[in-house]
Write a structure and sequence with these properties.
single chain; 4 helices; 5 strands; disordered C terminus
Length: about 150
């Protein structure tokens, strides 16, 4: 009976150690992580000095950060991380005076369309959508598995 308990403990210890080892090697799946405000370029372009806070909320939604000490500053912040890679942060700050928009700081969409296209090509091959050509199955160019 003592041998069975000792064997179970050894098996559990090996399984636990293997789990930690595999987790540290990056073999486990890491999803894309998007946090914060999701905004459209067209809506950000509609911001004009003189807009009220209510008009801005209607246009962009609620800000990520409003200081309890300075209600004249709103921050819209977004972060994106592709599969455990580098975190990209976007930030747009709106400054109000007497509940009226007076200026914006930062640029939420700093990338030009060409820069965005170049960045997206870095992830090419990570995912290939299913098509009739590949038998309706998604495939990964790097490993060839489906």
């Amino acid at each position: 009976m003592q041998t069975i308990n000792r064997t179970r403990v050894i098996i559990w210890a090996i399984a636990l150690a293997s789990g930690f080892a595999l987790g540290g090697c990056g073999i486990l799946y890491k999803p894309d992580v998007q946090q914060g405000n999701l905004m459209e370029q067209a809506k950000v372009n509609e911001l004009k000095p003189g807009m009220t806070k209510r008009q801005v909320i209607t246009l962009l939604g609620a800000p990520s950060v409003v200081s309890p000490f300075d209600s004249s500053r709103w921050d819209y912040v977004s972060t994106f991380q592709h599969r455990g890679g580098k975190v990209r942060e976007r930030k747009l700050t709106l400054i109000f005076k007497n509940d009226t928009l007076v200026r914006t700081e930062g640029h939420f969409f700093a990338e030009t369309p060409q820069e965005m296209l170049k960045a997206s090509k870095a992830f090419e091959g990570d995912y290939i959508p299913s098509t009739p050509d590949n038998g309706g199955h998604s495939a990964d160019k790097k490993s060839g598995s489906g």
